[in-house]
Design goal:
Number of helices: 1
Number of domains: 1
Strand order of the largest sheet: 3-2-1-4-5
Helix content: 10-25%
Distance between the termini: 16 Å
Largest sheet: 5 strands, antiparallel
Number of strands: 5
């Protein structure tokens, strides 16, 4: 099973970006996001940012993922 995860863009280099979430840093592709900027939150799946999201949406998703992790 694959799961998309919200992450925050910290740095952009061409068509890739360094993103962070929960202490994890990952290089991702940002080809599908129009005009991405550092500070944007994006939903990441299989190494690609697939959707821009608001900070509120991202934080709610991260909180839900943490609840699931703690329940396991």
């Amino acid at each position: 099973m694959c799961l998309a995860m919200p992450m925050k863009i910290s740095k952009i280099n061409g068509s890739t970006a360094i993103c962070e979430a929960g202490g994890l840093t990952q290089n991702i592709r940002i080809d599908f996001i129009p005009d991405p900027k550092p500070g944007d939150y994006v939903m990441v799946h299989a190494g690609f940012a697939i959707e821009r999201m608001s900070e509120k949406e991202a934080l709610e998703n991260m909180e839900l993922l943490e609840e699931i992790r703690n329940a396991l």
